[in-house]
Design brief:
This protein has 138 residues and is α+β, with helices and mostly antiparallel strands. The protein has helices spanning 3-20, 25-32, 79-92, 97-101, 105-111, 120-135, and strands at 45-50, 56-64, 67-75. 49% of the residues lie in helices and 17% in strands. It has a 3-stranded antiparallel beta sheet with strand order 1-2-3, covered by helices on one side. Helix 2 (25-32) packs across helix 3, helix 3 packs across helix 6 and helix 5 crosses helix 6. The longest helix is centred in the N-terminal third of the chain and has 18 residues, at 3-20. The structure holds FE2/S2 (inorganic) cluster.
């Protein structure tokens, strides 16, 4: 292993140690390994929304018989925003459109094992973006 790689690993370890003081393992996992990230080709619905902090989330959905068969997200947001978007796509995949519309910010926070109060708006932004993308399904 190169010296640069050792330094990188040390720094990553320190950052993770620090993050574990604040965030659940699920939040860190979804942030470090985001699921369903990227642009979806030929979506049936898409919308992007920005939060009070200026972060933006875009969610793409593809439906098959009123069920979400494909879903992805893009964001320019912080770690919790990435974690919320990633986790929400996992929650919504394979759900009927009407069921996915019922997911709340609190459901998402519970799925993630909690979020600090200052990040609860990230969950609300992700859920509102999903709902607006579903409302635009053509
Ligand atoms: Fe604003 Fe996450 S910090 S959406």
């Amino acid at each position: 292993m190169s010296r640069e790689q050792e330094i990188f690993d040390d720094v990553e370890g320190l950052v993770l140690e620090d993050a574990r003081q604040t965030y659940s393992e699920q939040v860190i996992d979804h942030f470090m390994n985001p699921r369903n990230f990227g642009v979806l080709e030929n979506p049936d619905g898409f919308n992007a929304m920005s939060g009070i902090c200026g972060d933006t989330i875009g969610i793409y959905v593809g439906l098959d018989n009123e069920r979400i068969s494909r879903i992805s997200f893009v964001t320019n947001g912080c770690g919790p925003t990435i974690a919320c978007s990633s986790a929400l796509t996992c929650m919504a995949k394979d759900l009927a459109l009407k069921e996915a519309m019922k997911i709340t910010g609190q459901d998402l926070i519970k799925y993630l094992g909690g979020l600090p109060v200052e990040n609860t708006h990230c969950a609300d932004l992700a859920v509102n973006t999903l709902r607006s993308a579903l409302a635009k399904v053509s």
